[in-house]
Amino acid sequence: MTGSQKIMAFLMFEGKAEEAMTFYTSLFEDAEVLEISRYGAGEAGAEGSVRQATFSLHGQRFMCIDSSVHHEFAFTPSLSLFVQCEAEEEIDRLYGALTENGQALMPLASYGFSARFGWVNDRFGVSWQLNLPEKA
Q1: What per-residue confidence (pLDDT) applies to 19?
Q2: Pairing state of beta strands 127-132 and 116-121?
Q3: Is residue 71 part of a domain?
Q4: How many domains does the chain have?
Q5: Are 98 and 108 in contact (CB under 8 A)?
Q6: Which residues contact 25 (CB under 8 A, 6 or more apart)?
Q7: How far apart, in Å, are the Cα atoms of 30 and each of 11, 16, 38, 57, 83?
Q8: Of 10, 14, 126, 125, whose CA–CA distance to 68 is shortest?
Q9: What CATH number is attached to the domain comprising 111?
Q10: What is the pLDDT of residue 5?
């Protein structure tokens, strides 16, 4: 296991793992792909696709793969990545990027529990909750 984080979110894609990692690491400072292994010729997955990878977003590590088997399920909003934003510019930028070719579940607004909040499914189907807390 890479690093000292014992529990990591694990994201399973069907051929889009590297594209998703590249997109996610472009959105956050202190973000990078840490490890990546690929399927080779004659292996279970498509040659060159992600067998397993680890990436980090602002110190939080994630694992992902490209499933070599088609499955009938996908990501669901019942499990989402929650981002505590520090400024209005940050929440606007993230919301705009994540909704591009995605789906807004709750448009950016004040819902009474924070200054601004938005919930989206990104273009890969991963669900994100973006929160800008009230200033103390």
Answers
A1: 97
A2: antiparallel
A3: no
A4: 2
A5: no
A6: 31, 32, 33, 55, 56, 57
A7: 20, 22, 24, 6, 14
A8: 14
A9: 3.30.720.110
A10: 80
Q: What is the CATH number of the domain that holds 42?
A: 3.30.720.100
Q: Does any domain span residue 3?
A: no
Q: What is the pLDDT along the chain (136 residues), one digit of tens a residue?
A: 445 788 999 999 999 999 999 999 999 999 999 999 999 999 988 899 999 999 999 999 999 999 989 999 999 999 999 999 999 999 999 999 999 999 999 999 999 999 999 999 999 999 999 999 998 6
Contact 54, 34 (CB under 8 A): yes
**Does residue 55 share a domain with residue 103?**
no
Q: Look up residue 111 and give its two tokens.
A: 């819902």
Q: How far apart are CA 126 and CA 76, in angstroms?
A: 7
**Domain limits for position 32:** 9-66
